[in-house]
Design goal:
The protein folds into two domains: 2-91, Tyrosine recombinase, N-terminal domain (DNA polymerase, domain 1, Orthogonal Bundle), CATH 1.10.150.130; 118-294, Intergrase catalytic core (hpI Integrase, Chain A), CATH 1.10.443.10. It has 13 helices and three strands, in the order αααααααβββαααααα. It has helices at residues 2-18, 24-45, 55-67, 72-91, 118-127, 134-149, 153-158, 187-203, 224-235, 246-259, 264-271, 276-280, 283-297, and strands at 164-165, 170-174, 180-184. The protein has a three-stranded antiparallel beta sheet with strand order 1-2-3.
């Protein structure tokens, strides 16, 4: 039975990695969630096969997680993991029905995204001093491209030079669900990429079709924690908020576009969101700006 369970988990992880093209960070989170659920079933009900767990078993685990306590977001992510796993088993014919069918996610209040203000972002890009060595120029381009394109961490890590079209001033990004989208490059961004490419080729060799855009000094692909360290190190000098992750630069990209009057649907497409609802969370910043304009300009404000 243990081997059978292990095989199903392996098949699911393989499915996420090769068919859904989920990021390594997300795959690791899914794997940990499933392992924790399995440990809970074994210790509480003597069940070592996740596939035979029922609605009541999953509800019991949710109650256990609430009592730990875990945040609503963390619990909902674990529920989402189970949903994905059981849907996978159902499609494969491994289970007759989905035990998560009537499981509902916990309600949570909307959390507004953290972003860097426009003046601060200008200071970061204009006042930061980077050396001429490859790693310095790479770190500089990491900050610039995350802010000026709004791409996700996993998208940047998976980006190859062949997807950077300097002639057309655009980048082809492979996003969630293996969906491609085109992000335009500004003239300034193009100029900086040309400079980075020169250092890249001086350090390694002429760029070829298999080369990743962001690499380590060994020319191996970048990994999530490396990008985190680069962003955190540079934002630390200017930003006082506790959140200084690559995703903050994505939030900043979206917020600044909307504050400048960009169309919500256009921002949605640039971010690669599946629905407009995911993009609307950024409109709160534009509303705050409108309030400030109103209070300053309206005679009755």
């Amino acid at each position: 039975m243990v081997n059978q369970v292990t095989d199903m988990l392996f098949s699911f992880i393989n499915y996420l990695q090769h068919e859904k093209r989920v990021s390594p960070h997300t795959i690791l989170a899914y794997q940990k969630d499933l392992e924790q659920f399995q440990e809970f079933l074994i210790s509480n009900f003597g069940i070592d096969d996740i596939s035979i767990a029922g609605h009541a078993d999953i509800r019991a685990w949710m109650i256990h997680l609430i009592e730990l306590p875990l945040s609503t977001g963390s619990i909902n992510r674990k529920i989402a993991t189970l949903r994905s796993y059981y849907k996978f088993l159902l499609r494969n014919g491994s289970i007759p029905k989905d035990p998560t069918y009537k499981i509902q996610a916990l309600k949570k209040g909307k959390r507004l995204p953290t972003f860097v203000t426009e003046p601060t972002m200008e200071d970061i890009l204009n006042e930061m001093r980077f050396g001429d060595h490859f790693e310095d120029q790479r770190d500089k381009i990491i900050l610039e491209i995350l802010y000026l394109t709004g791409m996700r961490l996993s998208e940047l890590i998976g980006l190859k030079w062949t997807e950077v079209d300097l002639y057309e001033c655009q980048i082809k990004v492979n996003g969630k669900g293996n969906k491609n989208r085109i992000i335009p490059l500004s003239i300034g961004m193009k100029k900086n990429i040309v400079s980075y490419k020169k250092v890249f080729e001086e350090t390694f060799s002429i760029v070829n079709s298999s080369d990743y855009f962001i690499v380590r000094k060994s020319k191996e692909p970048a990994y999530p924690m490396m990008i985190y360290r680069v962003v955190r190190k540079n934002l630390d000098l200017f930003v006082k908020t506790s959140k200084r992750s690559p995703h903050v630069l994505r939030h900043t990209f979206a917020t600044h576009l909307l504050n400048k009057g960009a169309d919500l649907n256009a921002v949605k497409d640039l971010l690669g969101h599946a629905s407009l609802a995911a993009t609307q969370v950024y409109t709160h910043n534009s509303i705050e700006k409108l309030k400030a304009v109103f209070e300053q300009a309206h005679p009755k404000a």
